[in-house]
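Incident review: delayed structure delivery

Summary: a single-chain prediction request sat in the queue longer than the usual turnaround. Root cause was a stuck worker, restarted by the on-call engineer. No data loss occurred. The affected request and its eventual output are reproduced below so the record is complete for anyone auditing the incident later.

Affected input:
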Amino acid sequence: MDDIKKDFTEEELEMLKKLEMRPAAPDEDCPELTEEDFRRAYRAKDGRPLHMQKENETITLNVPSWVLGKAKALGKTADASFLSRVLENAMYDPKIIEESL
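Output delivered after worker restart:
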């Protein structure tokens, strides 16, 4: 905490100490989360709603042989789970989506 003290005034540090002692309590600006809030929550990692995390469909997809070669060259096996993760990540990148349309 010593390195943090450099960035704050004595008054601000005193306020932070007092806040640290206060119990957390919901209020109108930050209400307690409900079960519905948790159901609608998104994972921070990829932005998918919780209810979509385990839904997978099996499809047949033709890919150029160089794609599989590149996956292998990266030291990854060209298995479906790796390629699925690459596709998922691409779907959350607007630039990739725009370039692919």
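Verification: The mean pLDDT is 79.
Action items: add queue-age alerting; document worker restart procedure.
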